[in-house]
Amino acid sequence: MSDIATHGGSADMLSKMIKRDEIDRYCKDGRDFIDDDAIRAEIADNAKPDKARVRDIIQKSLAIQTLSGPEVAALLAVDDPDLIAEMADAGWKVKHKVYDNRVVTFAPMYISSYCVNRCRYCGFSADNVREKRRCLTMDEIKTEAEAMIRGGHKRVMAVYGEHPMTGARFIADSLASIYSARVKMRRGECTVRRINVNAAPMSIDDLKIVHDAGIGTFQVFQETYDHKVYAAMHPADTVKGDYGWRVTCMHRAFDAGIDDVGLGVLFGLNPDWKFDVAAMCAHARELERFVNIGPHTFSVPRMHAASGSDVANAKSAFTDDDFFKAVLVLRLAVPYTGLIVTARESKELRDRCLRIGLTQMDAGTRIDIGGYSAANKEQKIDEQQFMLGDTRSLEEMIVDLAKQGVITSFCTAGYRCGRTGGCILDALKTGREGTFCKINAVLTYREWLDDFASPESIKACEPVIEAELAAIKEMYPKFFPTVMERYNRICAGERDLYF
Ligand code: SAM
Ligand code: SF4
Predict the structure, then answer these.
(1) CATH architecture designation of domain 3-31+101-392
(2) Where are the domains of the chain?
(3) Is 484 helix (H, G, I), strand (E, B) or coil?
């Protein structure tokens, strides 16, 4: 392995990886679109919103309209328990209006832990000599995908450190390897149906290569939008040290033809978490201004213990209650955007977030490289990026959700029917997509139960299907026979039917 695998980048490498003109074109007078002072002023100016104003803002969310900066700031200031309860109730309603009663599930596949960056909170940092690094070969990626399919997964999030050997061509080839995996299960062949990607920012040409390989959502987390904290966490002589390259990457993604993007903040990094909630919403509004398409998802990873990181291993002042409030405000601020709460968090906290409108959860998660095909299933701090809080299997999580009346969905129809970008956002805002979410959840749930679940799990989940089918019959009586026709074909062993 070359020395950049473990010792960070050089000035020459930075100039090769960062295209200055592909930052500048999205900036104004040399400044990016996150104005720290303006966001702080909005938070200060809206520190004491009266009840009537908060209720008006809640009504705007319920009408599935994106909130303005001052409105987001006002919600961040609410600490009256009654108003918080009203916001939580609205979060649940917003989520049901846009995405219905389903939670989409996925699992990350960590493909390489080699990284040229030295993010102070991450186990993959090039400074961390303790990390046992690995990059999967194409054959190993296929084997890993097969192990994931055997575990019941259909939606994969492919995750990569940043390194020249895992550039755009490697990412495209790795996606092809995952898509090529096929496993015979009880009722026929199963495959990975959609791969989302979490990788470093890329140039427009590289993003076109990744786009052409067939990705779902392209995720890049800003970690923190606070320019000063960002600089303190990401050394200036690394690629990731360039705030502008990172914050403009979704603009480049849209210009490369990717119309489905996910934003995120690494909570716990910036003590002023309210700033980061407000700034991520400002990023969403900037994308709406730029292409009239906001983010498909917000992710709310929180910093957890990581190998060799003083920052990640220090006790954070960011509490579970702060986490809950951040999720709640994001839920209301950009109502059409999905919300991902990963297995970094405990089952209890994820359940709390479920009741205010999270839309996606991973399960049966492994974040060590090759972890799904490995015999040893224990977490090892020096072989993964950070430590997980929720280690439930996929089956355990599905049953737990069923007990709460929630259906787990493996739906990938939106991507495959072209319902992405501006087209899906309109459908989400009007509640039209929620109809597809509801029906496709039932179809993919049936498949999963028949292919993977134990008899006890089937028993626990069957009432959810019955309730969902009854609701579909009542809501869409004319369409119901068509739904049942596909449902019965799935019961008879056909696979991958969707609307
Ligand atoms: N290397 C790419 C990057 O940094 O954009 C993409 C993948 S990185 C493996 C995925 C995400 O993990 C990062 O964006 C960061 O938010 C999160 N992360 C890093 N260190 C973490 C930690 N100690 N605890 C929880 N999440 C962490
Ligand atoms: Fe590398 Fe990403 Fe970890 Fe930073 S967060 S060290 S870029 S893998």
Answers:
(1) Alpha-Beta Barrel (3.20)
(2) 3-31+101-392, 38-91
(3) helix
